[in-house]
Amino acid sequence: MKHYLYLILAFTFTISAPAFAKNCQEVRLGFDIGSGSTKMMVAKVDYCHKKVLEVLLNESKPISYNEDLEKSTDGNLSPAIIEKGLAALTEMQAKAKTFKPKKSYGVATSVFRKSKNGKDVIKGFAKKLKIRLEVIDQEEEATLGYLSVMSLMDEKTLGPKNMVVWDIGGGSMQMFSQDEGKKAQKYLGDLASVTFKNMVIEVLEGKSLETTSSPNPIGDKRDQALALARSYARIHVPADLKADIHERTVVGVGGVHSHSIRGQIGTKEMKYTLEELDKASKLQAKKSDAELTGDYRSTDVTNLLLVQGFMEALGIKEVKVVNATLLQGVVLKN
C-alpha cells in the first residue's frame, strides 16, 4: 500500500511542478517615466523567481520634462510637455497591445516628485491610459534598480554581497548595496544627467537655461566640471557606502552607463574604465552639438564628466555595465 502511495505522490509532483512553474509566467508591460525620457518594456516574466525571461519590446523616447520644469515660472510642468508626454505613452501602449500583456504598471521619478503638478499629471496619464501609474520616492527607485540588476545577474558569479548598483537618471542618482539580513547602504542624490548639465550651463558657463539648453562645446570648462562632480561625490556619498565601493564590483545600470558612456568611449565591452573615460572626455569636450550624434547629445559630454568625477572621488577604477533599467524591476513588481 505504501509503495502505491509513494508512486501516486511522485506522479502528482511530476505533473504539478511544471504546471506551477508555468503559472508563474506571464507577459507584462512596464513604463518608466523619467525626467529626460520615457521608457517602455514588454516582457515575459517569472514573477515567482523574480526573473525576466524574454524582452518582447523595448522602446525609449526623449521627453524633456526636467528642462521644461527648469524654465517654469510657477513650478509646474507646462501643458505642452504634458501633451507631448501623453502622446508618447499612448503611442507606446498601442505597440504593446500586440503582445496582450496581462498586467500593466508604470512609475514616474524625480521631476514628478519636484514639480507642483507632478502627481496630478501622472494621475491624468493613468486615467487616459487606463493603467496603474504612480510617482515613486527615491528610495523605491533605488530598490527597483537593484531588483532590475538581480533579475539579470547570475548570483554564482556576482551576488548581492559582491556589488554596488549605480543608477543615473535625468534628475536623480542612486547607489545601492545590500547584504542579506543587514540594512542596505544607499546614496540618494539629485545630481544626475540633466541636473548636472544644467549646473554646468548656469554655474560654469554663466548662461541662462531659458535661452540655453546645451553646454557644448564644454572646452576649457572641462576641468572645472570634473572638480564640481568630484566635490559633490566626496561630500554627499555616505562613508559606509564608500567602504562598500572599495571592496565590491560597481555595476552600472540605465542609459547613461549602457548607451551614453559606452557609446562615447566606443566600446562593445559591457564595462568601462576610468582611463577610458578620461580619454573620451578630453576629446568630446571639444565638440559642439553639430559634431555629436544622437537624441541626447546635450547631456552626453556632461555625462562623461559627471561619471568621471564620481569615479575619481570614490576610487572606482572600473564599472561593469548591465543592460538594465528600472523597467526590469517595474515589470517584476507585484
From TrEMBL:
Membrane-spanning ranges: none
Biological process terms in GO annotation: regulation of transcription by RNA polymerase II
Entries under InterPro entries matching the protein: ATPase_NBD, GppA/Ppx_hydrolase, Ppx_GppA_N
Stated name of the protein: Phosphatase
